[in-house]
Design a protein that fits this description.
The complex is a heterodimer. Helix content of chain A is 52%, strand content 11%. Chain A is of the alpha+beta class. Chain A folds into two domains: 60 residues, Orthogonal Bundle (Arc Repressor Mutant, subunit A); 91 residues, Glutaredoxin, CATH 3.40.30. The radius of gyration of chain A is 18 Å and the shape is elongated. The model of chain A has no long low-confidence stretch (mean pLDDT 88). Chain B has five domains: 127 residues, Glutaredoxin; 191 residues, Rossmann fold; 84 residues, Roll (Ubiquitin-like (UB roll)), CATH 3.10.20.600; 89 residues, Up-down Bundle (de novo design (two linked rop proteins)); 55 residues, Alpha-Beta Plaits (2-Layer Sandwich), CATH 3.30.70. In chain B, helix 19 runs antiparallel to helix 20. Classes of the chains: A alpha+beta, B alpha/beta. At the A-B interface, helix 2, helix 4 and helix 5 of A face helix 2, strand 11, strand 15 and helix 18 of B.
Chain lengths: 164, 622
Amino acid sequence: MAEENEFIVQIVDRYDGDDGMLIPMMQDLQAELGYLPLEQLRYLGRRLEVPVSRIYAIATFYSSFRLAPKGAHEVTLCMGTVCYLKGAPNIAEAISREFGVEPGGTTRDRIFSFQAVNCVGACAVAPVMLVDGKYYESMTVESALEVLHELATEKVAADKEGQT
Amino acid sequence: MKVVGNSRLTGIADLERMRQEILSRYTPSARSVHICMGPGCAAKGSHKLYELFCEAVSQAGANVQVQAKPVGCHGLCGCGPIVLIQPGDIFYQRVEEPDVAEIFRETVLAGRLIERLLYENPATGEKVDTADKIPFYKVQQRVALALNGLIDPTDIEDYIKSGGYSALGKVLNGMTPEQIIADVECSGLRGRGGGGFPTARKWRSCREAKGSPKYVICNGDEGDPGAFMDRAIMEGNPHSVIEGMVIGAYAIGSQQGYIYVRNEYPLSVERLKWAIEQAKELGLLGQNILGSSFSFDIRINRGGGAFVCGESTALMASLEGRPGEPRAKYIHTVESGFRGKPTNLNNVETWANVPHIINQGPKWLAGIGTGKSKGTKVFSLVGNVVNTGLVEVPMGISLRQIIDEIGGGIRDGKRFKAVQTGGPSGGCMPAEHLDARVDFDELTKLGSMMGSGGMIVMDEDTCMVKVARYFTEFLQKESCGKCTPCREGLAQMLYILDRISRGEGEVGDVEELGTLAELLEGTALCALGKTAANPVLSTLRYFRDEYDAHILDRRCPAKECRGLFRYEIDADACKACGICLKNCPAEAITGEKKVPHVINQEKCTLCGTCWEKCPFTAVKKV
């Protein structure tokens, strides 16, 4: 714990302890840990002399913050107008059905976190899906599921390798 | 990325000397390969192409002088990845990894064209070798995107070579802040973020406002779905935004600027950060810019994924480390904005226009466009058009020209139904208004708006109730919840639209929607709420018959709303292959070999699997 607190101190110092920079601080924290552990947010509040309620308000207002750990991979499905009209809702539905995960959630085996976002700005090649930042263009239900099944197989293979 | 390693420039003469020095190193006949790294091309693997070209360059040996350059969006995203070869402006499209070696050997080294990678004019079947011969580019006029695709956005030298920062030099070399504002006023520049507020008036109010320090903000929170203009500028030519901001800050009297970038655009953040670092190193940003007494610094903030933060007061709240909730604007932000101080906020594209006005004179920009809308506007042309991508056109061009001449018309021989502009605050315009001129006032008159520049073309298979429902759902989810009309009104509107698209609409629903829309327009707190009804109002205005068909006939004319149409098998087209029968999850299809198959309507769950799987398009929506 002491070490992690050290980490919060570093982040706070990075922004000269300016509580106006709370959002960038939380973004840095999330970039490092993958999510915002409540324990760390409490410490951040104490350090900045800002009530945790305010930090919590920010964490829940902005959709990019998460309060629970994420999966090994990050899957982002674009729901912008063009992707939507070209079938993104069907893809979202299929992913939810196939892997039992709703947008905003993580699969039970923690293989991936699934996010539906408003627009990733690649409308010319819609529908678009991102896996760990890599763009997949002109998705269909089949091709999207195929990409995600590959993630699952990779994970299984990696686990096996780890065991032997 | 290149490390500049240059020493600070201490004056305008220094900047000019540096430009001459860069130009002297540059030979016009030098060969270079420009690989588009725009979002569309990147999605199709252009990063790998760039690596392969770099490899080819390094293997070519020291006596061959070739440069591989990663450049910003070229615009014709639908044909990506795009690769340009200099000299000669050779334009290759749909380039794949195996093509790299051939391009390098044939075109770069031997100067021969590769026929198969050239763009083919679909109208004439003729292959063309350069971009300016492609109809998509012919009608365009590029100002904000002028250097996109030509310069390496990670190299400040490339920008300076093309005349970059000369506007800043000119400003610091004898223009007074009043002169700058007068020039911007004379140019007629209006805000490109959607509102269309006269830029010079905003600057002047902020300059004259009491209080210090003053802040300058660049709004890069491009939240409209279907829009990526600002992204292309931030990633393709970040220095143009920075130069515009420095000039604006000098005119307004500000020493601190912020760029607020959408969380979904990590590459924009990276490019801008790098550009700021390079500009600081050269003394074009920071303390005593170009040896003058003027100092100005820029900080980048990332958004948190909230659409409402594109609204100026919400954005400022977010910059202050609070939830992004807007406030009423009885007091303008130019008087009391960020941290309660005078603040001037402009959109990315607006800032990118500023250096051009200073360099080419205000009359030049005022010479483009219509009476009250001057200059050009960048649009992301997407949806059911042949050529999708990023376009920049003079104001006053007709919607038809953009869609037909630049966009190449509707895809797959379908008929045009509507064009949506202005994002969730805008509306859908039908075929009868295709000859309307694209400018701020004309589009507003038609019930839409210019907005930040999303332009989504829809064909006959698009259900307008579904479109209205989409935008309403988007806005309902993104409503910050501060004011009641927006929080509750949108939820009610969505509830009604939901019922209509499920075939449970009732007589009177349309009137109810109208009442709620009016209430929203008149009483919502911020501009986003006030315009949130536009998608519903504009579709009601032009496509009332589609609402009526859903409500009165329980029928979706575009056959998109599940349950409001049926699937049937055309007996003449059916080859009795059995694919639909095997794939039907509800076992609703019967048939034998050589006998046309039939869908049992009672069992059918309308999932559409048969329609997708049929290789003979024998399954029809009726």
